[in-house]
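Prompt: I keep going back and forth on a fold encoding question. Comparing notes only helps if you start from a blank page. Show me how you would write down a chain together with its backbone fold. Please set it down just below, with no commentary around it:
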Amino acid sequence: MIERDSGCTLKRLARGFPIVAITGPRQSGKTTLARATFPKKPYLSLEDPDMQMMAEDDPRGLLSEFPDGVVLDEVQRTPMLFSYLQSIVDEDMAPGKYVLTGSQQFDLLSGISQSLAGRVGLVQLLPFSISELKTAKRLYDNLSDLLFCGQYPPLYDRDLMPADWFAGYMTTYIERDLRQLITVKDLSVFQRFVKMCAARTGQLLNLSSLAADCGITHNTASSWISVLEASYIVFLLKPHYRNFNKRLVKTPKLYFCDTGFAAWLLGIRDPEQLSFHAQRGALFETLVATEFLKARFNQGMQSNLYFWRDSKGLEIDLVLEEGDLLKPVEIKSGQTYVPEFLTSLEKWRELSGRPDLPAMLVYGGEKEMTTRKIKVLPWKKLSAKDY
């Protein structure tokens, strides 16, 4: 088993909250993490029809069988359990008693906010990070291989071809999750929509254009984007509000949560295709952006990530907000460092009035250095939690 950075966070939260919850996309390792972190707790999967029926028929009776707590997997399947958990933990606030997992933000977080607010420590678990794979000595040496394969755990613990696994993942996602969240009359239209989103990863989200390309309404496109967000297929990166006396773009950027899935949706079936593919830069930007997101989630924190772009085209790919401090990050997929990579960072620091502001460039090469007070980091050495 590849050790997860969020394991320590779960243990910390379990010392202070009666319930800890893990949410994230399907196959991101939630169940494995929960059982490995709390090996002595009984485990119940609420995707099991018999167990789900028991939970629906007699939720109090089911929970009473586990006085010392239990791991409840895919708990959003039986939302009535949230109210019963509330009454139990209000009587006994023993820390770390229950561990919940769920694959849908809408249902799980809705149940937590309505019934369990203030009683739950939450971790959002995305696929493996670069640092996790590197620690386990499972990180690809070649960037194209990593972009192509992605970082979902099953592709690192089974003998699977990425194309075979992603095809099954897409089918499973549509058949099991999508139908529970929205009604889609024509699944092929939704499949085309997801592929069109993959073609836009790393770009400003233009819902009108996306809707027109798929032959759907603007409202439908907006609804479907929300569904993809809820299932941790994509995330939206908001523009930062601080304008430095410039007019700013106010549209969010769209990113996939895994480059391998995005590459498969783009029709890429071989890592060699990525060497000169038009989407290589966008996929690399997606990789780096998700690494910073994973670092926040693995520590049990919400995203502090933004991007910055003014009306004249000056853009900073990522801006990390830490109180009053803004940390800019520029992302370049090129393997050879050139001084022009730093142009946007230097201009942005001038506009901010902080020429000494900490800044970072992450690029597709091998050499690490610090120049002009900017840390230049190769992708293999990216450990977003340390920035």
Q: What stands out?
A: The chain has a mean pLDDT of 91.
